[in-house]
Design brief:
Layout lengths: L3 H19 L2 H18 L10 H22 L10 H12 L4 H8 L3 H9 L19
Helix pairs in contact: 1-2, 1-3, 1-4, 2-3, 4-5, 5-6
Length: about 140
């Protein structure tokens, strides 16, 4: 069982990206809980290394991967022109995490050309992690 304090810390750290990827506040919370539960199932001590940069990257990758798996069920129609979790993950990793194109390609298991295509669409989008797509502030 994952402790409440640990879940709160994970939610504080990863809620914005989870909500950005799937555009549903409840599903974003559930996504974080499910990834945390998966980590505990693999190794009960893993989550206690939360302040580690390696852990943060690993957790983020699992979060993106699970969001991609669930995207058909949970992505809502308010997403504008950025309409897939893959695109959202690419944009998040590039714009907000500063990842290189080759790293994004490896993480998302897509071609570098596809990554560049998503990035090329950026000037036409208005992206803000501090707002949800229905206009309500999320922090």
């Amino acid at each position: 069982m994952v402790k409440k304090e640990l879940i709160r810390k994970l939610v504080d750290e990863f809620y914005q990206v989870a909500n950005y990827l799937i555009q549903d506040q409840l599903q974003a919370m559930q996504l974080i809980i499910d990834v945390a539960t998966g980590f505990v199932a693999q190794d009960s001590q893993t989550l206690y290394k939360i302040d580690n940069e390696y852990f943060e990257r690993k957790f983020l990758l699992k979060l993106v991967s699970l969001a991609k798996q669930r995207s058909e069920q949970i992505l809502n129609s308010r997403s504008g022109n950025i309409n897939t979790v893959e695109q959202r993950a690419c944009i998040y990793l590039f714009e907000f995490k500063g990842e290189a194109v080759d790293n994004i390609s490896e993480i998302l298991r897509i071609s570098q050309q596809q990554v560049l295509s998503y990035i090329d669409q950026l000037p036409h989008k208005s992206i803000n992690l501090n707002e949800s797509f229905d206009g309500r502030t999320i922090n």
